[in-house]
Design goal:
The N and C termini lie far apart (about 60 Å). This protein is α+β, with helices and mostly antiparallel strands. Strands 1-3-2-4-5 form a 5-stranded antiparallel β-sheet, with helices on one face. The protein is built from 3 helices and 5 strands, in the order βββαββαα. The chain folds into 2 domains: about 90 residues, no CATH class; about 40 residues, no CATH class. The radius of gyration is 22 Å and the shape is globular. The protein is about 35% helix and about 15% strand.
Amino acid sequence: MQEVALYDPNRKPASWMEVIQPMQYAVLFRDVETGAELTSDGHYLDTGMMRSCLIFDSLEEAEQYCRRRVEDIPNLRCDVFDSHGRANPPVATFVSQRYEDRLESQAKAGRMMRWPFFRLQRRSHCSGTRGRPEAKGGWPLFLASNSFSSVCDCSIGATA
């Protein structure tokens, strides 16, 4: 395990994303209730404090560490990321048993937030663009909505 500053202008490379290697895992810490960033020992970051993560050589090592920490510090949330960092969702998230239901509620809320996007895209596609990129909405709308054509009852190739 290695503690690495997320950004250190005096280090080369400066970004932690250039320090982490493939097959390594980074753990970032937050408060379960507030979402505020924490140190690995569960303290809030003071002004001017350097933000950091812990890098582990294996997922198993990171998971074991996180399980111990959330039992020792109940309000700690450990998010485990692969070497691609925050570009993807965490590969694992750990909270104490006290907060497991909160984690499930947050996941459910995330799923519920995706539905309005889907409905918006479907409605936009069926409301007149008809697959014509020059139509209102342009290419981004066409490309995003085109993937939903199988659930839409309108024809993509139709012309006005």
